[in-house]
Design a protein that fits this description.
The chain has four helices and no strands. Helices cover 95% and strands 0% of the residues. Residues 96-119 have a biased composition (Polar residues).
Length: 137
């Protein structure tokens, strides 16, 4: 128990130094794996004790129900963790792209200021002529 906690803490500190989204995804995966292992061990011990005390058929049905519930938990937790990871990933991407978009906007504004309005008008007229020519053909 103590060793696993220390390992978790080391991985947390490492992932924190990397990025928040990675840290969260690591935390989620660690928590999920721990929960699953605990659930599995509990179900195994229960099935063992039940098989000793109860009849074979009852213990089998119980273990089946337990495994089914476990599989459901896994199926539910996997997409949840994946969706959370993607959400954090997108958030980080947006945070990263905000700086980039700001730079791009600045350059675009500079270009539009440099370009004369008459040049834009000429372009519009040309595009109109082209459209007319295409329709005539």
């Amino acid at each position: 128990g103590v060793e696993s906690v220390s390992v978790c803490w080391q991985s947390l500190s490492l992932s924190l130094s990397l990025s928040p989204s990675v840290c969260l995804s690591v935390c989620l995966s660690v928590c999920l794996s721990v929960c699953l292992s605990v659930c599995l061990s509990v179900s195994l011990t229960l099935s063992h004790t039940l098989s000793h005390s109860l009849s074979h058929s009852l213990s089998l049905s119980l273990t089946l129900s337990l495994t089914l519930s476990l599989s459901r938990c896994v199926c539910l937790s996997l997409p949840l963790s994946l969706s959370l990871m993607t959400v954090f990933w997108e958030l980080e991407k947006q945070q990263g792209s905000k700086g980039v978009s700001a730079k791009n906007n600045g350059t675009l504004e500079l270009r539009s200021k440099q370009g004369s309005p008459s040049g834009k008008q000429d372009l519009d007229e040309n595009s109109g002529h082209n459209a007319v020519e295409v329709s005539a053909h």
